[in-house]
Amino acid sequence: MIKILSIGLGGVGVVTSYILQNFNPEVEITAIIRSDYDHVMKSGYTISSIDYGGRRENDDPNEADNTIKGFRPKNIVKKLADATKFGPFDYIVVATKVVPKEKDNVWEQVEQLPGLLKDKKGTSIVLIQNGIDPERFWEGLKDKAIFISGVSYISSVNHKGTVTQYGHDDNNFGLIYENDNPESLEEFLGLYTNDFNSVGLDSNVRLTRWKKLLYNASFNTVCCLTDMDIGKIFDLKDSMGIIDNLVRPLMKEIQYVANYDLKKNYPNHKDESVTDDDVGFIITATEDTDAKNNYQPSMLVDSRNGRNIELEVILGNVIKIHKLNTNGDMKSEIPYLNMMYYLLSLVQYRLSDNQKNSK
C-alpha cells in the first residue's frame, strides 16, 4: 500500500487526489479537508472535468453526461494532527496556497508532528504550488524528506465541493534538490500519469517555475487588482491595449529577472532560458482556454472571497531575487512588477484588515 497525504483540497488538490486514488488501486489517500468537510462526508466531491468526465470541449457549453459524483478520498480528517493515525506517509502532496501566517503554517505542523514522515528520507513532499522558492518555507525538513516540485497548468476551481476543470491537466514534476534520490520521483510520475493527462519529467525546476510565473505575475495579478476575469481582460485587448501595454510588459520583466537568475545561480542550466516564444505561448494559450471560459485566476478568487492572496511567492520573491542578484534600481529595471507589488500590497492590507474587523 502506498500512503499519500493530501493537503490543500482546492481545484488542483481535488483533481490530484482523484487521479492518484482512481487510477492506482494500491494508493490510499488521506485528505485534510476543512471548509468542505461536512459536504464531502455526506455527498463527496462533484468533478466536472474536461479530462476525466463531466465537461466537453471549450466551445460546447453543455455538460457531459459522465460527471464524476461522490468522489471521496479514502480517509478524511479535519486537522493535520488527526492524519498521524494513518501514517507514516510515502508522499505528502501539498496543493495549498502559499500565504504565510504568524504561526501554525503547514510546514511548521508537518515538522512538529510525529508519525507523518518515514525515517531516512522515506517520505517525499510534493509541492504543487505557485510562485518561486516555495520550498524555502520547508527548509527545516530538507534533511528529513525528499522534495519534489510540481507545476500545474489545469485551470481548475473548487466551489463548495464542486470542482470544475476547464483546461487539460498538464503537470511537470522534478526534484527540487538535484542530489536527492530520484526513485520516489520516478514512482510518483508513474502514479500520476494516465491516458488523459500530460505529465513531464522536469529536469530544470527553476526554469519551469519561472515560466509559470509568466502567467501568475501577469494575468493573475492584473485580474486580482482590477477584479475582472480573464475573459474581460481579453475583451479589452484591442480597445484598451491591456495585453500589450500591461500584461506583456509584466511578462517581459519576469523574463528579464528569470534569465539573469538562471545564468548567475544555476550554471548547470546556463543554456536554458525563458524565451520570447514562451511569452507568446502563454498569451495565446490563455486566450484559447481561460478567456473562453471567463476563468477566474486564483488571486482573483481569493480576493473576491475575502482571503489573503499569494503575494510574496508570486511577486515579492521575484523582487527579492532581482535585488539580491543585481543590487539594481527596482523602479527603473522592473517598474511594472514593482508597481504591481505595491498596489497588491494595499489589496492584501485591505483583505487582512477586513478579516480582523469581522472577528
UniProtKB/TrEMBL annotation:
Pfam families: ApbA, ApbA_C. One of its GO terms (cellular component) is cytoplasm. Residues 204-347 form the Ketopantoate reductase C-terminal domain. Residues 4-174 form the Ketopantoate reductase N-terminal domain. InterPro entries: 6-PGluconate_DH-like_C_sf, 6PGD_dom2, KPA_reductase, KPR-Related, KPR_N. This is 2-dehydropantoate 2-reductase. It comes from Debaryomyces fabryi.
